[in-house]
Specification:
single chain, alpha/beta, TIM Barrel, eight-stranded parallel β-barrel, three-stranded mixed β-sheet, 19 helices, 15 strands, about 40% helix, globular, disordered N terminus, disordered C terminus, binds 4-nitrophenyl beta-D-glucopyranoside
Length: about 525
């Protein structure tokens, strides 16, 4: 059987088995929307906020951001938050996952200088969310590290474990009585690999093969310390749930017969998410075997006196192991993997990519989003949920992010198709015993998409960046119906929506001429 026909078969087995009846979600299933502070708030220097590494990066000249934009204003949710809560009410979401900006609370990173105005902002935000009957779901750290801490090495400095726990304590002290769900840290891989091992995110260190592994250990210890702190001081009274969000892609061997490709896909999964998930969720609580083995051998060949992957001591392991009440999974896409002789000399040494020793390829037949890395592969999502459930003994899983990027336009059929197929795949995994308890769309509205500025739109609501008005896309009506009925109807089509019907949204001509605005 060819790889293509194999994939086709998978597609039919696990994806769109036509279901005439709407498929119910389990009782009590929670639906939400996700955002992050730097991507939506704006107000970058208002009311005593300090600078973050994203302020520094976006203000660099020449700018590394695709459209040279910044999050200085973003979608101005700092001032428009009440309106954003209104549109969430319109959607009927059960929870809102948003992040707290560390430098808004601690302008210099440390706790000697606490910015009361910053704390007050989140008081108001949380109170308004609760008043709307929506559950606040807080991410303590979503990438906007105080610049001062970066100058001290940021996530590569082991002292950050304490700096982060000090910050978490301030946040818990203030909000634990109102916030039942917590994510300590969003996406260690994106922080460590993209920020430290490459130049794809702030602080653009690009020190691959070393920095991302130092960062990985520190992120895990910082997360664990914040988790233990909640356990010791807050859980008894407030009884909340604390977890971590790990970005997880599925990696599929490019051929199903070649042992090397199968092993390469297994390695890629462990480097992508096992590196962070294994120490927290597995029985032995250490880095994954595949990761330890590859880095150890490569390091020895390269003349390093010991493995570039730092060791976790017995104490580290006991702190990290079990430090999550649920598996927060951010998942978007799948990649094909192969490994053969052509790899020789392909990657710099040392590097993360050389440590994995595999080639990542795209299948051009898979639907492609606006973001180059994002393709719709629902059976990959199904396999991912199944594998995580199997490896870590069926933990409760919260899908803390899933979404699709497009250009401008309200009639976003592709996004609806993506959601239909991914939710269907998720329901298949639930039917087979996976404990998926919650699902959250990335994102409520268009926002600052990191290095891609405002060129890629992930919103259920389109934002006019001239007027900052938010307009529901067709997918918003679709999601609203899913939530209202607690079921997925693969044939549901929101009616009577036309692009022109929304002309009242007064797009500026500049918006039409230039998608980059
Ligand atoms: C997430 N991948 O990052 C972030 O948490 C969001 O802040 C971001 O806006 C959103 O996804 C869309 O990019 C990821 O390649 C980016 O698998 C890429 C991947 C995963 C997560």
């Amino acid at each position: 059987m060819t790889a293509a026909s194999h994939l086709l078969l998978l597609f039919y087995c696990t994806d769109v088995t036509p279901k005439d009846q709407p498929r119910p979600f389990p009782d009590g299933f929670m639906f939400g929307v996700s955002t992050a502070a730097y991507q939506i708030e704006g107000a970058w220097n208002e009311d005593g906020k300090g600078a973050s590494i994203w302020d520094t990066l976006t203000h660099m000249d020449p700018s590394p951001i695709k459209d040279h934009s910044t999050g200085d204003v973003a979608v101005d949710s700092y001032h428009l938050y009440k309106h954003d809560i209104e549109i969430m009410k319109e959607l009927g979401v059960h929870f809102y996952r948003f992040s707290i900006s560390w430098p808004r609370i601690l302008p210099d990173g440390f706790i000697h200088n606490i910015n009361e105005a910053g704390l007050k902002y989140y008081d108001n935000l949380i109170d308004e969310i609760v008043r709307a009957g929506i559950t606040p779901f807080v991410t303590i750290y979503h990438w906007d590290l105080p610049e001062v801490l970066q100058r001290l090495g940021g996530w590569a400095n082991p002292h950050i474990v304490n700096w982060f726990a000090d910050y978490a304590k301030i946040v818990y002290d203030r909000y634990a009585n109102k916030v039942p769900y917590w994510i300590t840290i969003n996406e260690p891989k994106q922080i460590c690999y993209e920020g430290y091992g490459s130049d794809a995110k702030a602080p653009m260190l690009n020190l691959s093969g070393i920095a991302e592994y130092l960062c990985a250990k520190n992120v895990l210890l910082a997360h664990a310390k914040a988790y233990r702190l909640y356990d010791d001081k807050y859980r008894k009274v407030h009884n909340g749930s604390v977890g971590i969000s790990i970005s997880c892609s599925w990696y599929e061997p490019a051929t199903d017969t070649n042992e090397q490709d199968i092993q390469a896909a297994q390695d890629a999964r462990q480097f992508d998410w096992g590196l962070y998930a294994h120490p927290i969720f597995s029985y032995n609580g250490d880095f994954p075997h595949e990761v330890k083995k590859n880095i150890y051998h490569k390091s020895a060949e390269q003349g390093f006196p010991k493995s570039r992957l730092p060791r976790l001591s017995a104490e580290d392991v006991s702190n990290i192991k079990g430090s999550s009440d649920f598996f927060g999974m951010n998942s978007y896409t799948t990649k094909l993997i192969y490994r053969d002789a052509s790899l020789e000399g392909m990657y710099p040494t040392p590097s993360y990519m050389d440590d994995i020793s595999a080639v990542f390829v795209k299948d051009p037949t898979w639907p492609q989003a606006k973001s180059s890395w994002l393709q719709s592969v629902p059976w990959g999502f199904y396999k991912l949920i199944k594998e995580v459930s199997k490896l870590y003994d069926r933990p409760p899983i919260f899908i803390t992010e899933n979404g699709w990027s497009s250009g401008l336009g309200l009639l976003d059929e592709e996004r609806i198709n993506y959601f239909k197929r991914y939710m269907n795949a998720m329901l298949n995994a639930i039917d087979e015993g996976c404990q998926v308890k919650a699902y959250s769309v990335w994102s409520l509205m268009d926002n600052f998409e990191w290095m891609n500025g405002y060129t890629e739109k992930f919103g259920l609501y389109e934002v006019n960046f001239g007027t900052l008005e938010r307009y529901p896309r067709k997918s918003a009506y679709f999601y609203k119906e899913v939530i209202r009925t607690n079921s997925l109807d693969l044939y549901y089509e929101p009616e009577n929506l036309t692009e022109a019907g929304h002309s009242a949204r007064s797009r500026t001509t500049a918006d039409d001429d230039n998608e980059l605005i």
